Amino acid sequence: MEFQGRVWKFGADVDTDAIIPARYLNTSDPAELAKHCMEDADPEFPNKVKTGDIIVAQKNFGCGSSREHAPICIKAAGVSCVIAKSFARIFYRNSFNIGLPILESPEAVDNIDEGDEVKVDVDNGIIYNLTKGASFKSTAIPPFMQELIDSGGLINYVRRRLNR
Amino acid sequence: MGMTITEKILAAHAGKDRVEPGELINCKVDVVLGNDITAPVAIKEFEKIGVPDVFDKEKVVLIPDHFTPNKDIKSAEQAKILRDFAKKQGLTNYFEVGRMGIEHCLLPEQGIVLPGDAVIGADSHTCTYGALGAFSTGVGSTDMAAGMASGEVWFKVPGSIKFVFNGEKLNEWVSGKDLILYAIGDIGVDGALYEAMEFTGSAISNLSMDGRFTMANMAIEAGGKNGIIAPDQTTIDYVESRAKRPYKVYRSDDDAKYERVIEYDVADIEPQVAFPHLPENTRPISEVGTVEIDQVVIGSCTNGRMEDLRIAAKVLQGHEVHPDVRLVIFPGTQAIYKQAMKEGLFEIFVDAGASVSTPTCGPCLGGHMGILAKGERAIATTNRNFVGRMGHPESEVYLSNPAVAAASAILGRIAGPEEVD
Known about the structure:
Strand order of the largest sheet of chain A: 4-3-2-1-5-6-7
Shape of chain B: globular
Order of helices and strands of chain A: EHHHEHEHEHEEEHH
Number of strands of chain B: 18
Largest interface: A-B, 44 and 52 residues
Oligomer: heterodimer
């Protein structure tokens, strides 16, 4: 899997209320949720973001609630992947479960600025900053998570196990 | 090498003699929980798996508590998905408005979660049940769907951080809320990321069950996977009359391995206030300064239990809410509501000029029943003070215990109860 896009940069501890405020959680329709993606962190984000763009953030991205609506709305807004120094654990699980690629790389975060053009080789965990001509390695995806990805997500994995 | 209580519970549910931090395990679960925000997504995913029935009709628990009583048509549709699914599956533990409670107050009260259980819930505050000596953690909707179908979930075994709260007696007006806010203020909102937070020490032994629920409830606010307190006589006394099935008490071995051990002396801990916009921005009440407020919220899965309401009533009795302040009180469950009514607490609240709500998560997450306008400021006994958490993105939330919240309601600014005559 490879992605290339423009970077939108965010700070530390971006919480799930900033990613998708609870006032919009009376629906679970991804397209509806996408209209408010990251709204309380940057009100203009839903209008600015283009398909393929990449979110880069500091530590503890996605802290707070368990709402799967958070990675769902990021994916539905067209964001191809999220790179952060670290992720909150429920957001981390949810992203794998719904198929939103996320990568941990403190070094990449420190060397990517808003507006940079970045290419991500998800399979090999390599992040290329095309604007600055630099590349970074992301933390390896645990083998079990890779198995989940290869199965096409948790639901497919469980379906196969239960119907075996 | 010994094991921690968290490792012992996970090993038992994975059918293993022992587990190590970092190990990936497949774990049987005793309860799978969802609410009106997370379960509709889970039910949709469950239907894709292709099994007709949930793994156990008594172990899948659905509670419409977030946007209920239904706040608008869309919310009504979401709640209806739960109701229809619960009926179709014949779930024993579906709790309708008027017979329900805020999920994390209700499950322990009804004896649905017991010591030694492994529990997942599609709500981040599922970590509350760690107060009973259970392993309990929040997951997303897809994990909930997989859990409903299989009765299992995969986990990476967390390392454990031991928090020792030394000292026999808490300072006046200090409660479980202040102990956990103090710890979060110390280690930060990702200070326990992916880890188990085990609370021990003489101050914990002396703490009520209600205070323990509050502490375990906020483990997630430090990034923790679970919060846990080993069962003792206080736990057994709480559980004995409620349990309808056997349960097992686990305790950490003396030679269990911890990633860190953090010790506090409760003599150093005053009532705490977390400033916007993170729970780690704590200050002791003596260093708050003048912060005027527009709204006070007392309740939630963090502080909506009997002890919390009794403390609020003790502070409010004979006083009136400040003319510029709205005080919203929402008890955690119908049983708590009834008990508070019986004890005359509602009379104190209503005489003071407070509104008393049916149980709901509403105001805590900015859903309904007490939303903040632009520029407004609230102090709340809830668990999060993120940007826009209780309403407009330019509103502010401060977190405290019920005594400080009640005193602030009277004085119109953040204040300790000793300031109230």
